[in-house]
Amino acid sequence: MVDLVHSRFEVREGIGWFSFDRPKELNALNPKVFEDIATAVEHCEADPDVRALVLTGNRRAFAAGADIKHMASGDIHLAAELTRKSNSAQQVLSELSKPSIAAIAGYALGCGCELALCCDFRIAAENAVFGLPEIKLGIIPGGGGTQRLPRLIGLGAAVNMILSGDTINAQQALQTGLVHDVVPMDRLEEEAEKLAVRLSRRPVTALNAAKTATYAGTNMSLPDGLKLEWSLLCMLFGTEDQSEGMTAFIEKRQPNFTGR
Ligand code: CO8
Q: pTM of the prediction?
């Protein structure tokens, strides 16, 4: 158990569960919540028993964005400090070597949506609502939305969301590729857990290499990306898990990966 202020975090059977916990404010994100996220993610990174992370909220909101009441009378210094905290949280989350899943019910707006974009997988409940409404507040997304969203769903769909500030529902998010799956609300936690368990059985070094090659590759030229992929693949031939994975295939049994 990690001691947090506006969030909860626990590890259950190898899966780290982080929940936003400001229900009255629809889990609006303040500097303390960003610190909570960084603390929990760093715990997941450091603890070899944690094999996957799930980020979630409650039935009404994943997170309705940065706390507008905190920002309303803010100046440039407050904006710089807030983005420094949110960037730190997003960096550790997006660079986590283990798989991460955002399990989203209700509102995922602004910075809440952007945090979900930092996860590897997004599963939405049927009532989920996504949006980057910052433009309606006289600002623009400040948690990576203008960068990660176009890379994920394409320029046209992202420009539509960012410039209009309008929200989309779970089915529209599925169609644009913003989420991987839409499930009934009552099955959200169960489906996130099933995915986390499935991923946690994969070989950890190969998982990390797959994440690095895929994400780092999107910011590289094709030749550089191919070189990165090649070097990571060759490195994996130095792991016991490669030998175990291929041997298990030949012996027609399930592999027993150890992470070595
Ligand atoms: N910040 C602060 N409080 C919030 C927020 C928020 N983002 N969202 C909801 N709340 C509060 C409401 O003020 C209300 O509190 P109270 O009861 O004290 O008045 C309570 O949560 C419930 O909200 P509503 O009564 O409004 O509930 P509705 O069901 O009528 O509406 C909505 C729900 C549609 C989600 C509505 O609350 C809403 O539009 N919220 C704001 C969404 C938004 O604009 N989010 C983007 C914020 S900006 C951002 O995320 C990026 C900022 C850039 C800086 C990046 C670095 C961090």
A: 0.96
